[in-house]
Design a protein that fits this description.
The complex is a heterodimer of chains A (about 120) and B (about 120). Chain A has about 120 residues and is mainly beta. Chain A is built from no helices and 12 strands. Helices cover about 0% and strands about 50% of the residues of chain A. Chain B has about 120 residues and is mainly beta. Chain B has one domain: Immunoglobulins (Immunoglobulin-like, Sandwich). Helices cover about 0% and strands about 55% of the residues of chain B. Chain B has no helices and 11 strands. Chain B has strands spanning about 5, 10-15, 20-25, 30-40, 40-50, 55, 65-70, 75-80, 85-95, 105, 110-115. In chain B, the strands form 2 sheets. In chain B, strands 2, 4, 5, 6, 9, 10 and 11 form a 7-stranded mixed sheet that branches. In chain B, strands 1-3-8-7 form a 4-stranded antiparallel sheet, with no helix packed on it. In chain B, about 35% of the residues are buried. The chains are: A mainly beta (about 120), B mainly beta (about 120). The interface of A and B includes residues 4, 42, 46, 91 and 101 of A.
């Protein structure tokens, strides 16, 4: 069975600096998708960034980028120029490529604190 | 924008009660999901549905059931609430899996306390 592990329960970063959140996953499949979700204190979970396993290029969305290491089964999230609004819980999630249901497997989450 | 609406943000019930959590989405999504979120455990899938009247068990279905009579509505039912079901419950929806990089869209969550 696939598993997703976020080994950092809490992280902190100074405003305007860069922080990296780690995520590893375990799968025997070659076709899959990876996601980072953000859950601010108001609680609605929103998508930050997604990566298709067949793409070698790392996904980027403005200040958010990933370091996707397929062989190492690692999918870290880098937040550049951190802002106070980035403070949230971040979840890494995995989806099997052949899944017809869109079922996601989530990591345990990392709480990010941004210090002014 | 996709809107996923959960009927309550906070709910307090008593042990043994039958509890209904309602979720409605407005984007004609085929897939709908119920998760519970607990500290240190992330989100765990309780049930999901990929069509009206269709449902499948997730990873922790014990003590729960679901109902999907209409495409836009997915209900989670705690048949006889117990204190270990005190948790945050999140509903989500997504498009049909043919677009496999499509994300799930989440509601605000319901914080349920069972006394």
């Amino acid at each position: 069975a696939q598993t997703v592990t976020q080994s950092q329960p809490e992280m902190s970063v100074q405003e305007a600096e860069t922080v990296t959140l780690s995520c590893t996953y375990d799968t025997s499949e070659s076709d899959y998708y990876l996601f980072w979700y953000k859950q601010p204190p108001s609680r609605q979970m929103i998508l930050v960034i997604r990566q298709e396993a067949y793409k070698q290029q790392n996904a980027t969305e403005n200040r958010f980028s990933v370091n996707f290491q397929k062989a190492a089964k690692s999918f870290s999230l880098k937040i550049s120029d951190s802002q106070l609004g980035d403070a949230a819980m971040y979840f890494c999630a995995y989806r099997h490529g052949s899944s017809n249901t869109g079922k996601l497997i989530f990591g345990q989450g990392t709480t990010l604190q941004v210090k002014p | 924008d996709v809107k996923v609406t959960q009927s309550s943000r906070y709910l307090v019930k008593r042990t043994g009660e039958k509890v209904f959590l309602e979720c409605v989405q407005d984007m004609d999504h085929e897939n709908m999901f119920w998760y519970r979120q607990d500290p240190g455990l992330g989100l765990r899938l309780i049930y999901f549905s990929y069509d009206v009247k269709m449902k499948e068990k997730g990873d922790i279905p014990e003590g729960y059931s679901v109902s999907r009579e209409k495409k836009e509505r997915f209900s989670l039912i705690l048949e006889s609430a117990s204190t270990n079901q005190t948790s945050m419950y999140l509903c989500a929806s997504s498009l049909l899996a043919a677009r496999r990089n499509q994300p799930q869209h989440f509601g605000d969550g319901t914080r349920l306390s069972i006394l």
